[in-house]
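Protein modeling request. Please complete all fields; requests missing the sequence field cannot be processed.
Requester role: graduate student
Desired output: 3D structure, token encoding
Chains: 1
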Amino acid sequence: MKKILTACVVLGLAFVMTGFAADEAKKDKKKAGNDPTAGLVKKATDEGLPEDAIAKIKTAAAEHGPKLKEAQAKVDSILTDEQKKARGEATKAAKAAGKKGKEAKADVDAALKLTDEQKKSIEASQKQLEECMAAFRKAATDSLTDEQKAKLGVAKKKKDK
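Delivered output (161 residues):
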């Protein structure tokens, strides 16, 4: 009887520990899922670009990825948890309402209720993030043809003068 009871306790602990390990794996996966370069790499693969083009994009992603993550983390560190939650909710609401661009950004900015200090910090950090993203896009797409760039959605749009 003691052996059966011991076996049940051991099995119960094994199931509990497995559940905790699975939760930790999900958390680690969420943290790793914040790769700003992953979208372009996935799109290049999905669009069937040649292997050499995909390899160049992956090289650019490996080079610029850490810089982009650091810049994004800098922007995120300025916001409080409540502001991050408000940003997410405002973004979802703007998408649901069909708002895009400046209109959606205005709604999100209003929901954040930033202090003057936060506004200055975010502006500087956002500029750095945009510069890093532009450098990544340039490095990733320099060797692509115009047709390949169009497939990825990174072709330059001509401005009317």
